[in-house]
Design brief:
The chain is α/β, with parallel strands linked by helices and 120 residues long. The chain has a single domain, classed as DsrEFH-like (Hypothetical Protein Ychn, Chain: A, 3-Layer(aba) Sandwich). The protein is 34% helix and 21% strand. It is built from 4 helices and 5 strands; from the N terminus they run βαβαβαβαβ.
């Protein structure tokens, strides 16, 4: 059985509830010693830019910036869809800690090795 887990996230500040819950689940997976990746695509790539998540705080949860930082501290990786990031003309020099810009092939390889995946 695979010890890897993927959270596919497609929203950011446009849906703070789903963005927050995605990082709650990802944090739980990382804390459970799963090799955990959050794959940011479409609008979610904005979360990879430092400062963007600063004021996103869904009631009942920790602030999103803290959830993201704790996820990375627990060993989680944030993969950022390269074409989605470029389309939005975001700055590659301002990535949050733990974020790496990747192509779709990297995600496909990770999933093909048996990683479970949930999407938000």
């Amino acid at each position: 059985m695979s010890k890897s887990f993927c959270v596919n996230l497609t929203v950011a500040g446009n849906d703070p509830d789903r963005a927050t819950v995605a990082f709650v689940v990802a944090g739980a997976a990382a804390a459970s010693e799963q090799e955990t990746v959050v794959f940011l695509s479409t609008e979610a790539v904005r979360l990879a830019e430092a400062g963007y998540a600063q004021n996103i705080h869904e009631e009942g949860f920790a602030p999103l910036r803290d959830l993201m930082a704790n996820f990375v501290k627990a060993g989680g990786k944030i993969w950022v869809c390269s074409p989605c990031f470029k389309k939005r003309k975001l700055d590659e020099t301002k990535l949050v800690a733990g974020a790496t810009i990747v192509g779709g092939a990297k995600l496909v390889e990770f999933l093909s090795l048996g990683a479970a995946c949930v999407s938000y």
